[in-house]
Fold this protein.
Amino acid sequence: MTISPSVTTIIIGQTATLTASGADSYTWHTGSNQSSIDVTPTQQTSYTVSGSRNGCVGQATATVTTTCTNASAQAISTTVFSELGPGNCSVKITGSGFGTSMIVTGPDNYVYSSVYRRAGTYTTTANVTKPGTYTFTVQNKNACGDVFTDTRTFLVTGTACQ
């Protein structure tokens, strides 16, 4: 009796099909009585099937290993729409990127963030009132929780309103 896996290593979240052969009836340790089962393990897992043919009982085991993929994060662009000064006490800044979160940080512990449920290309907009260097950071996480980051900096010029 044998188990033939469709793949032996999968990325977390993917599915492998395990197909048993060499018997007339099957019982997997998962409880299934089918000759094939689909599995989606979150860590390396061994699967065992018992089978019988003509009164003889056999057993086979297959292991499916999991791995993570890299998740890209990309800070694509940043834009400062004007300069601070009299009559213009707030400047709009935008950042576009690919990831699950976007964070703008700047002078005097300024922080503005946007968080998204799924990785994608998004644009975030913030209004700032102080001149200085601002950092736009895009983050993305893979299925194992590894965080990938890309950063751009930009300068807001002019004089803050009093």
